[in-house]
Fold this sequence. Notes:
- Helix content is 38%, strand content 18%.
- A six-stranded mixed beta sheet has the order 3-2-4-1-5-6.
Amino acid sequence: RQDDWRGRLAWTIGVSHRRVRRYPRAMLTLSLWRHAKSSWGDASLGDLDRPLNERGRAAAPRMAAYLAEREAMPECVLCSPAVRTRETLTLALAAWDRAIPAQFDDSLYLASPATLLGVIRSARQRCAGLGTRLLVIGHNPGLHELALALIDPAAAARPNGEALAELTAKLPTAGLVVLRFEAASWARVRAGTGRLVDFMTP
């Protein structure tokens, strides 16, 4: 049943599991980070304008430190323009010991898996100097659905089967998914080809 679900989602986002031609491959690291916990305290604010709450402001730097410890520091960040994603990024940048280029992309706000994948595939055009490590900060349900669609279930089942089961159940606020791909470029990232390296929650 899970395989059928993955196949339907792969079809929905317009990608194929097939590899027809072979190209020289690089090891690409893609980190998908759901924004930290936001506040619902001000009913006058629209969804786009909701800030982080105290719990979210504490979680974001911890997750940023985790990325640095795991040697998955991004070379570029693509971020939704929502206040809660912007504040997540601001706290992460403060926690890192170097400047990381960041781009805010309106299409990432509440984006579908298909839109997210399109942004990732065009990341080299959006991020000057991007090499092999990219971070996307966004929202559920699209981010969660994309993460599951990108993972190769056979590869994930070996060292990280428990992590995959937890991720399948939920991608909570501030949850971070780190995937690696053997691909010639970001434009060649495909569903079902990513290796789940880490799934971390606050």
